[in-house]
Write a structure and sequence with these properties.
about 350 residues
């Protein structure tokens, strides 16, 4: 007998809460996100009836977006604006990295998947390799005939690898707490918190109505940034609320790893994991070069340029105190650029390939 949806959600949240408490006791990095992520993923792959509630996931993104927006004081905004050239370089880096990863996936797997047509295989590798916007890349890949299961699996696995490797690596190396930008407000004002919630919620709903990517995160972030940039401080976001948001986001990531996930082309998954580790290494080198020109800490720039998701990398920066506004700005600009440029770039590359083949 299948468990009722509400009961599945409740049991999954209890599992996630227990995992988060264990990670807090073990002093792991990002315990409120990594604990639920790992526990839910393991349970899901074992066939347990895990469930993530969409409204809770949206609420978690709403809270995190609002909390991050509170860092963008006028001084911090001026700092971020001065980094426009570095952000443009990071966008170009992300596009090149994605195309390079796609070429690696195609070259390795095209001979091993003869049942997939060459164009479909190219599309599968291309959209699986794109850095960022996982859900949108899966939808775009479907329109050009790609294997969407492989695209979705690649993005899910890459995100998990980044979320696990980078925080644990930073904690082991002691590279935390290097944020030189001022922290956001620390005092919670109930009336101000309510006003912040209403305004950021309205922004999220507007973004959703306009069909924008990550509307609950981006809408809340933009509105909170707007208030903070003009010097209006309504309230801090309570720590317990931020922790709860991380928990439900961790659950939403973990449930992607279904019981059949490991049976989805094991060689494909292994190459994605290997490629992700290589990309993180390349991003570390790129971040180090950028740090020479910007004067910022390389770890902050690593989070800003790493092949992870905007929400997860911003949470990492917030919890580990690693340049939240800079990381958020880099990730937001990259997300927008990827959404705008990846699809036209695909069609340009295909048209160029057709011209070369005709010559």
């Amino acid at each position: 007998m299948r468990l009722h949806y509400t009961l599945r959600v409740a049991l999954t949240l209890l599992l996630a809460l227990g995992a988060a408490a264990l990670c807090v006791a073990l002093r792991t990095p990002l315990p409120w996100m990594i604990g639920p992520l790992v526990a839910t993923a393991v349970a899901s792959m074992a066939g347990a009836p895990t469930e993530s509630a969409g409204p809770l996931r949206n609420g978690g993104q709403w809270v995190i977006g609002a909390a991050l927006g509170l860092y963008f004081t006028p001084q911090v905004t001026a700092l971020v604006a001065s980094l426009w050239w570095a952000i443009l370089l990071a966008i170009a880096w992300a596009l090149v990295l994605g195309v390079g990863f796609a070429a690696f996936l195609y070259g390795l797997h095209a001979p091993r998947l003869p049942d997939v047509a060459p164009r479909a295989m190219r599309a599968t590798a291309y959209y699986a390799g794109a850095v960022g916007a996982a859900s949108e890349m899966t939808l775009l890949s479907e329109r050009v005939g790609a294997r969407t299961d492989l695209v979705a699996a690649a993005h899910s696995l890459r995100l998990m690898v980044v979320v696990l490797v980078i925080p644990f690596g930073l904690q082991a190396s002691g590279l935390t707490g290097v944020d030189v930008t001022p922290a956001g407000p620390r005092v919670v004002h109930p009336a101000g918190l309510l006003a912040l919630a209403l305004c950021t919620g309205a922004g999220a709903l507007l973004m959703q109505r306009l069909g924008r990517a990550n509307p609950w995160f981006m809408g809340a972030l933009v509105v909170a940034m707007g208030f903070t940039m003009v010097g209006v401080t309504l309230s801090a976001v309570p720590v317990w609320l931020s922790n709860a948001a991380q928990l439900v986001i961790g659950v939403s990531l973990g449930v992607r790893f279904t019981a059949g996930f490991l049976h989805t082309a094991p060689r494909w998954l292994a190459s994605v994991a290997l490629g992700t580790l290589v990309m993180m290494g390349l991003c570390a080198g790129f971040a180090w070069l950028l740090s020479k020109g910007t004067g910022l800490h390389p770890v902050t720039l690593l989070l800003g340029t790493s092949p992870g998701g905007i929400t997860e990398m911003s949470i990492t920066a917030k919890v580990l105190q690693l340049g939240v506004p800079v990381v958020t700005a880099f990730q937001v600009c990259r997300l927008v650029a990827v959404l705008l440029l990846v699809n036209p770039l695909w069609h340009w590359l295909e048209a160029r390939r057709a011209r070369d083949a005709a010559c």
